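TASK: fixed-backbone design
INPUT:
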């Protein structure tokens, strides 16, 4: 179940490999001590979040080739 969720989630991302790379770097950076505490962790967390929010554009429906064949519906109440 978790694998199906992850594959659907990564499938919708625009840059799934870049998201995975930044998430791994964030995990490593949280473990290794550094000179400026929490600055680089915060920046990597923001970058990872921004990459997670980038989605692929939804495919647009094909335009109707002949608008004269379109059927008009009467939607007025009776």
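OUTPUT:
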């Amino acid at each position: 179940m978790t694998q199906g969720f992850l594959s659907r989630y990564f499938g919708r991302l625009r840059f799934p490999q870049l998201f995975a790379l930044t998430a791994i770097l964030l995990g490593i950076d949280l473990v290794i001590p550094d000179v400026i505490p929490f600055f680089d962790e915060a920046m990597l967390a923001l970058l990872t979040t921004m990459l997670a929010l980038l989605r692929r554009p939804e495919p647009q429906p094909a335009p109707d080739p002949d608008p004269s064949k379109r059927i008009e519906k009467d939607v007025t109440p009776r």
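COMMENT: Residues 26 and 44 are 6 Å apart (CA to CA).
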